[in-house]
Here is the input.
Amino acid sequence: MPCGGWIRPSGSARGRWSRSRGDYDEAARQYQRALDISERLGDQAHTASSYGQLAVLAQDRGDYDEAARQHQRALDIFGRLGDQEGTARSHHQLGVLAQDPGDYDEATRQHQRALDISERLGDQAGTARSHHQLGVLAQDRGDYDEATRQHQRALDISGRLGDQAGTARSHHQLGVLAQDPGDYDEATRQHQRALDIFERLGDQAGTASSYHNLGVLAQDRGDYDEATRQYQRALDISERLGDQAGTTRSYSQLGILEKDRGGPAATAITWHVKALAIRLRLGSPQPGIDLRRLAAYRSGTGAGPFHQHPGSGGRQPRLG
Here is the structure.
């Protein structure tokens, strides 16, 4: 319930909605609106939450310094309020922030602080969240045994709580973990478990993510037709949701797939151009993903194929 009987500023929900679709400028406007209202009301709890949301948004855009400033503001307020759950969330987010550029020692410290607080509070959901993130961190460091232990702990807690969304996230991560060393059968089982739960929950974004990962798995195995089907399913959902970030991810992967399967360079270029156009429009921190691919095509094939694609506003290339 909102603190003090106040209604949570609607800009916060609208900001989350815009961010989930990759519209970072609109998300920033809505989060700032929520922050302004909370500050005017003297609502410190929601002020801290707005700082946290602005921090996550800055992190999405690759502005790590701004993200750190906003997370620290949130942490300071939660500390003054004695809000231990909020403090744990801030440490969690600071851990994710440190993890992105590869500062694993600092990330470990922050996630451990979040875990310690959650365990002290008996907050099982927060404990599961910390185990999950420590698993991702161990995975990034190449410690697959530790990653498996942490993700299994998160899965066990989510199962006890009946947290289906958390269970699905753990299955997803265990699938990625199995995929890295090439255990494709186990990876498929885990991703399929995640997909089944997301579909049962009606979680369209989660469903699209599972389709995408099953596509990556099929591509790694050389089953390009199956990869195409899975990417198209993910793309259809992302476009229906208006999820620009998900749409961009599918475009990029379809471009990579086209190269792997030896398709026309012009088709792969089209996918990457469409992805790049969205990334640039949204101010995404990752335009280099497609720029590097396009530069490689330009270097390898010359300018010819670039004159053949329909451009970012043209008809999509036919799949399959």
Q: What stands out?
A: Residues 1-10, 309-315 have pLDDT under 50 and may be disordered. The CA atoms of residues 182 and 220 lie 9 Å apart. The first helix runs from residue 10 to 20. The radius of gyration is 21 Å.
